[in-house]
């Protein structure tokens, strides 16, 4: 081969080699970084969807738990009514023994299962101690809550299932996210909100309650996931129980005119009564001074039994109407199928207060709505030109606001429960008035005050829950 041709071949080979080296350099500089970024994005997307799946799966679990708790609560109340059919006097022995048993179980077997459960959820979100958080919203506590709450209703306690559903929902969601502890505060918030939504079939109220009461702030990064959990819980409950309105559809209206005088009157009375209820519960939770306070703290089971005796006496005086959640009585007052008794509201108030300070597990939502319904119905004689249903709804919102100091939650939840939008403005006004009056009587919100007491006794300071990334 001629020399000139060999030189040309070498030159061509050199050019090809340089071209390959250049392509490799370009690959390293451009393509590989893009592939790395694509791989990182894939990992991030997988993590994001895994977190979203946690909210959905947890929401389904909350929905199942809400349906279970509703069925157990109804069954327990049914059995208690059958026992009372034998003789109303049976409650004088059965209810005190039942209260004592429930108090003992809540203290010794299932610690942190006392009360409604919402203060425990708030404290779990605020604490920075992982061990305390797990103790407040563990699956063991959730199981105990379901069992002892049902026992309380079986023995005639004036309690509800909605507050316990919040704690159970938070525990389920927290357990679903145990592999991602940084997201647990958001999961707890979502579980509690989903519990309210599934318990009442009120998805909007679940969102509002999560923001107003559990979170006291809106976490934009978890807002969509909270909605997803509520949707999952709500759909699960709907699939098992069907679509329903908690109190049935109410079409009452209150045209602007003289009848509007009832709004501030009922609002103020509801705020006064609800504020007094909250202040009393907080006083007992902190501990009363003197010998009586020492006796209550030293013998909690005996004190619970004494509270049970008080509930039984209220039940006898009311003809048995103050036992249980009060759902049927409130529904009857709302739809006019029962004229009601003038003493129903004060007796239901006393029975609910005794049940709350006894320390047994049980919620306040349904009994509070029942007290408010009785309050509104009792004022029918003063406002004869106002429909009874309107007075009942205003009373519900006013007393619930006074007890919880959560006005937005109160009027949203009552509106959703009855599908009544004609009374939206009067309900808002009543809620605002009740909130102002309640804060004059009790400066602290009930649930947050009880949550701070829990944290103080645990020896930890509350801190704002960090937004979930």
3D architecture notes:
- The chain folds into two domains: 50-241, Clc chloride channel, CATH 1.10.3080; 258-457, Clc chloride channel (Orthogonal Bundle), CATH 1.10.3080.
- The radius of gyration is 29 Å and the shape is globular.
- It is built from 19 helices and no strands.
- Helix 5 (139-154) runs antiparallel to helix 6.
- With 469 residues, the protein is mainly α.
- The protein is 75% helix and 0% strand.
**What is the name of the CATH class of the largest domain?**
Mainly Alpha
**Measured on Cα atoms, how large is the radius of gyration?**
29 Å
Q: How is the biggest beta sheet arranged? A: none
Which fold name fills CATH's third level, the topology of the largest domain?
A: Clc chloride channel
Encode the helix/strand succession as letters.
HHHHHHHHHHHHHHHHHHH
CATH architectural grouping of the largest domain: Orthogonal Bundle
Overall average pLDDT: 84
Structural class: mainly alpha
Helix content: over 70%
What's the number of extended β-strand segments?
A: 0
Please name the fourth-level CATH homologous superfamily of the largest domain.
Clc chloride channel
Spans of at least 5 consecutive residues whose pLDDT stays below 50 are: 41-47, 462-469
Tally of separate helices: 19
Q: Categorize the overall geometry.
A: globular
Distance between the termini: 71 Å
* Integer tally of domains: 2
Quaternary structure: single chain
Strand content: under 5%
């Amino acid at each position: 081969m001629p020399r000139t041709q060999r030189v040309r071949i070498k030159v061509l080979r050199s050019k090809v080699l340089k071209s390959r080296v250049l392509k490799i350099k370009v690959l390293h500089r451009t393509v590989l970084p893009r592939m790395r970024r694509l791989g990182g994005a894939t990992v991030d997307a997988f993590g994001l969807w895994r977190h979203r799946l946690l909210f959905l799966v947890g929401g389904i679990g909350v929905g199942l738990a809400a349906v279970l708790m509703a069925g157990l609560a109804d069954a327990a109340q049914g059995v208690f009514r059958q026992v009372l059919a034998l003789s109303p006097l049976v409650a004088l022995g059965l209810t005190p023994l039942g209260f004592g048993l429930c108090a003992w179980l809540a203290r010794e077997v299932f610690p942190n299962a006392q009360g409604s459960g919402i203060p425990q959820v708030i404290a779990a979100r605020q604490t920075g101690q992982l061990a305390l958080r797990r103790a407040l919203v563990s699956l063991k506590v959730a199981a105990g809550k379901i069992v002892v709450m049902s026992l309380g209703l079986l023995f005639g306690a004036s309690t509800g299932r909605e507050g316990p559903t919040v704690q159970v929902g938070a525990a389920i969601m927290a357990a679903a996210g145990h592999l991602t502890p940084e997201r647990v505060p958001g999961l707890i918030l979502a579980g509690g909100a989903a519990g309210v939504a599934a318990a009442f079939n009120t998805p909007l109220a679940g969102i509002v309650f999560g923001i107003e009461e559990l979170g006291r702030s809106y976490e934009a990064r978890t807002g969509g996931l909270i909605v997803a959990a509520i949707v999952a819980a709500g759909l699960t409950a709907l699939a098992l129980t069907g679509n329903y309105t908690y109190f049935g559809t109410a079409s009452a209206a209150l045209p602007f005119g003289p009848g509007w005088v009832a709004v501030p009157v009922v609002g103020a009375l509801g705020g006064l009564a609800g504020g007094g209820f909250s202040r009393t519960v907080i006083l007992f939770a902190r501990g009363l001074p003197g010998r009586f306070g020492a006796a209550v703290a030293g013998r909690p089971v005996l004190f619970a039994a004494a509270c049970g005796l008080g509930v039984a006496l209220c039940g006898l005086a009311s003809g048995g109407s103050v036992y249980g959640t009060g759902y049927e009585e409130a529904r009857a007052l709302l739809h006019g199928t029962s004229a009601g008794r003038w003493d129903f509201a004060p007796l239901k108030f006393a029975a609910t207060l005794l049940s709350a300070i006894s320390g047994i597990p049980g919620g306040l939502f349904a009994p509070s709505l029942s007290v408010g319904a009785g309050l509104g119905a009792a004022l029918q004689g003063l406002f004869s030109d106002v429909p009874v249903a309107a007075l009942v709804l205003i009373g519900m919102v006013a007393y619930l606001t006074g007890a919880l100091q959560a006005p937005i939650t109160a009027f949203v939840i009552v509106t959703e429960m009855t599908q009544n939008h004609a009374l939206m403005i009067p309900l808002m006004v009543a809620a605002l008035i009740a909130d102002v009056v309640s804060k004059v009587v009790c400066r602290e919100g009930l649930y947050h005050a009880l949550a701070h007491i829990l944290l103080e006794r645990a020896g930890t300071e509350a801190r704002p829950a960090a937004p979930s990334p």
